[in-house]
Structures are given as C-alpha cells and as structure tokens.
Design brief:
The chain is built from 5 helices and 10 strands, in the order αβαβββαββββαββα. By secondary structure, it is an alpha+beta fold. The protein has a domain of 106 residues: Cupredoxins -  blue copper proteins (Immunoglobulin-like, Sandwich), CATH 2.60.40.420.
C-alpha cells in the first residue's frame, strides 16, 4: 500500500471520527445580552446537533464579559456563586466529553437575568441515527475571513463514508 493511500485513509478517518469545533451562536460576538427574544442562543442551540467530542468556542469581549459553566439549578436561578468552571479569556473553548445537558451563564452581574445564558444538549452515541442524520451538520470553524459558520451538505458526509468503507476493499484486490 502506498504512503499516499495510507494518508488518504487517515484523512477520511479523521473527518468521520473527529469532533467539531462549533462557534457559539454561529458567529463571533454572540455571547452577549440578547437584543431581543426573537433570536437567543438557546434557539440556536436547539437547531444544532452536538455530539461527544465536539468543542464549543466562545468569542467575546473579555473586558466586559465571561463564561461560567454551572449546574442546572444555578442556570435556572442565574446564580454565579458556585460555578463548575469560569472563563474570562475572550476565546473560550470547552470540549463536550459526555452526553446530556451542559449549562452556561455569563459571569457578569445581571447579564444572565437579561438572557445571556446557554443550554447545550449533547446527543448520546445511541441516539436515533436517522433523526440526527436528517439535521444539518456544523463544520469546524476555520480561520478564513468571511463566514465563521459553514454547513456541511449531508451528501458530502455520505460520500466520505462510502470512500472510507470502499477504499480498504479496493486495496485488498
């Protein structure tokens, strides 16, 4: 087997198995008190499928905001007194290492009460695959100028899966 084919196999495997880096809200500077109730981060979160191994990336102004991971009770009460973790770097990245809910609030006084909070639910590995497959997939965030958020066409993912499954069979022949 040539080294080029080995590289191709590793590339396909990494595309299929690696978690995604998902920009919170789909673009920079969405971690702030919402201007209206028409488009909140939780509405964005409900439309996005999260899986174990994905990472959330917040981009925000660290001079006047922060991110706190909290319990469900503290999320509901906007209680900042006992966070699980706190971040104030303006470029916060958190890996989602388990299925289930994750709760985040702003660490700044009064921001959570005004709607700056986020609930993310990570799908179980056993989640109904046909339901998840119909939903758009979020691509990793890139350093390119322009859009910070790109949707991958499900057909592209299917083609990569077929290539990954068929290529080893071709190599055996």
């Amino acid at each position: 087997m040539s080294s080029l084919m080995i590289c191709y196999l590793f590339l396909l495997l990494s595309l299929l198995c690696e978690g995604r880096e998902i920009l919170v809200g789909g673009k920079s500077n969405t971690w702030k008190v919402p201007e209206s109730t028409e488009e909140t981060l939780n509405q964005w979160s409900e439309r996005t499928r999260f899986k174990i191994g994905d990472s959330l990336l917040w981009k925000y102004n660290a001079e006047n905001d922060s991110v706190m991971q909290v319990s469900q009770k503290d999320y509901e009460r906007c209680d900042r007194s006992e966070p699980i973790r706190g971040y104030k770097d303006g470029h916060t990245k958190i890996e989602l290492k388990r299925s289930g809910p994750f709760y985040f609030i702003s660490g700044e006084e009064g921001y959570c009460q005004r709607g700056e909070k986020l609930l993310v639910v990570v799908l179980s590995p056993n989640h109904n695959r046909s339901y998840a497959a119909d939903a758009p997939l979020t691509a990793p965030v890139t350093k390119n100028k322009g859009s910070d958020h790109v949707l991958i066409n499900q057909a592209q993912r299917s083609i990569a899966t077929v290539c990954f499954l068929v290529l080893p069979l071709v190599l055996l022949v």
